[in-house]
Amino acid sequence: MSADARPLKPLIAVCQTTSIPNKDHNMECCSRLIREAAQRGACIVFLPEAFDFIGSNTEETLSLAEPLEGDHVQHYAGLARDCGVWLSLGGFHERGSDWESTHRIYNCHLLLDPKGNLAAAYRKTHLCDVELEGRVSMKESAFTNPGLEIVSPVNTPAGKVGLAICYDLRFPEMSLALAQEGAEILTYPSAFTVTTGSAHWEVLLRARAIETQSYVVAAAQTGKNHEKRTSYGHAMIVDPWGSVIAQCQEGPGVCYAEIDLAYLRRIRQEIPVFHHRRTDLYGRVAPLKSPVTS
Hints:
CATH topology: Nitrilase/N-carbamoyl-D-aminoacid amidohydrolase
Distance between the termini: 44 Å
CATH superfamily: Carbon-nitrogen hydrolase
Radius of gyration: 18 Å
Number of strands: 16
Low-confidence stretches: none
Number of domains: 1
Order of helices and strands: EHEHHEHEEEEEEHEHEEEEEEHHH
Shape: globular
Protein name: Nitrilase
Largest sheet: 8 strands, mixed
CATH class: Alpha Beta
C-alpha cells in the first residue's frame, strides 16, 4: 500500500425480500441474497423483519414459529460461517421458553457473527397495534409477547450496531438510548404497509439518523406477501447527515453502502447535540441491558 493510500471503508448490504407463508422458499431467496452480498465484499448483511415467513393468519403464524435452537436459525448460522459475514436477522418468529404457558411468540432480531455465534438478541418492545379505518388493521399484541429490554449496541467491523424492529422506528426515545450508549448504526428491519410506508417510512428513517447523527439501516419487505398483505419496500441506508445514500428498487434485491465512521465523528463534533442535551430539564434515557442471547 502506498504511503497516501487510505484503508477501505467497511461495506454493508441491506436486503429487500418478499416473504410468503413458505419458509423453504424464503430461506432460498434470502440465502441467495446473502451469498451475493458476501461475494461483493459486504461485512454485514441485513435482512428484514419476518425474513423467515409472513403468515396469512394468526394460526399459521404460530404454527410456523420455531425456537432459536431450531433448524431455521441453524441454517443461517451455517451460512454466516460459510460466507464469513455478520448477519442481522431482522425479525424472527421465536417460540420462547414460555411458549407452553403463553402460546405467544416473540418478534426477535438476531445478530450472528461470522462464526455463526449469536452475538445479540433483541425482542421487539413496541408491538404494532394499528387501526386505520378501511386501510390498515394490525394487532401484533394478539399473538406476540413484548420484549422487556433494549440491548446495548454490539461492536462489529462496520461500527457499533443498535438493534430495533419496524414499529420501534416511531419511538425516538429508543434511538436516543442506543446512541447515548455508543451506537453508530441503527437498524430498523421492517415490514411497513403501503399506506404507512408511503406516508412515513423515509421521513422517519431520516429523522432518526439526523437526531442521533448515526447511520440508519432499514431492510424491508416488499410486494405481495399473501392475498391479504402487500409491503411497501424501499429498503434504504441513511447517513448521519440524513441523506439517503442507498435504496432498493422494486422487488427483491440488495443495496450497498460504505460506512464512514470518520465522517460520522466529524458531524458529531461539528454539531455536538449530545453535549447540548438539557438532561436537567427532561432527564436522560435509562441505561440499557447487555446483549441478551437467550
